[in-house]
């Protein structure tokens, strides 16, 4: 009876942990989508909402940290369970960074002048769609412990990198030809860089999901961001 009670309590802890990660992921994905909408439309109230809601993501990360410490201290998990718990702790930290990148994009919403003249504003939303879908799918992989989906998400990062390279070349040429646009163009380059980082961090989550599901490691990536 005691063993059954402990097992039930442990299952509840794991369910709570997965729920917190799912909530963080949903908020991060929403932040990316709304930050880009605010940027394209110049919608400052929408941008303000993204910035304010980032505190919720930060609070959820702190809650994950506390829960993981409690689980390890009280349940002494081993093997597969321990891998999932440690992976969840790392994933929470990565999602917090993704939320920060979305917040940084939102902060640029009011700083773009002459939106209609910037071709990258037609490319950035497509780039953001891929990055947001990576976040969405890698969280699905986490929930299902789906190593194959995690690998597929990781491979998709090449599309985000290709978008970034194209936008970078486009913006540099545009700034050379139109020096008066340098400030706004620089903000758009900053946005593209943040989206590229979101893609990188999604692949980092994929690595953690793969590890939790299989105990193995995916091939190292030399371009992995430090934070």
Can you walk through the features of this model?
With 227 residues, this protein is mainly alpha-helical. The protein has one domain (2-214): Phosphate transport system protein phou homolog 2, domain 2 (Methane Monooxygenase Hydroxylase, Chain G, domain 1, Up-down Bundle). Helices cover 83% and strands 0% of the residues. The protein is built from 6 helices and no strands. It has helices spanning 2-41, 44-75, 79-106, 120-144, 147-177, 182-214. The longest helix has 40 residues, at 2-41. Plays a role in the regulation of phosphate uptake.
Helix and strand content put the structural class at mainly alpha
Number of distinct helices: 6
Broad shape: elongated
Distance between the termini: 45 Å
Instruction: Give the percentage of residues in beta strands.
Output: under 5%
**From N to C, what is the helix and strand string?**
HHHHHH
The strand count comes to: 0
Broad CATH class: Mainly Alpha
- Poorly predicted tracts of residues: none
Tally the structural domains. 1
């Amino acid at each position: 009876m005691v063993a059954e009670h402990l097992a039930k309590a442990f299952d509840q802890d794991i369910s709570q942990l997965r729920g917190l990660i799912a909530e963080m992921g949903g908020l991060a994905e929403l932040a990316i989508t709304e930050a880009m909408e605010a940027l394209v439309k110049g919608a400052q109230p929408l941008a303000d909402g993204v910035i304010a809601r980032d505190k919720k993501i930060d609070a959820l990360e702190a809650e994950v940290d506390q829960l993981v410490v409690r689980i390890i201290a009280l349940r002494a998990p081993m093997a597969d369970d321990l891998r999932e718990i440690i992976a969840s702790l790392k994933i929470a930290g990565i999602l917090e960074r993704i939320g920060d990148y979305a917040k940084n994009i939102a902060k640029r919403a009011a700083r773009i002048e002459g939106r209609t003249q910037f071709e990258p504003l037609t490319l950035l939303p497509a780039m953001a769609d891929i990055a947001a879908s990576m976040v969405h799918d890698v969280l699905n992989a986490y929930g299902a412990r789906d190593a194959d989906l995690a690998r597929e998400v990781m491979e998709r990062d090449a599309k985000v990198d290709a978008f970034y390279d194209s936008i970078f070349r486009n913006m540099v040429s545009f700034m050379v030809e139109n020096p008066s646009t340098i400030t706004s163009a620089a903000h758009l380059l900053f946005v593209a860089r943040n989206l590229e980082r979101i893609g990188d961090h999604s692949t980092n989550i994929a690595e953690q999901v793969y590890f939790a599901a299989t105990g193995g490691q995916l091939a190292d990536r030399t371009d992995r961001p430090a934070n």
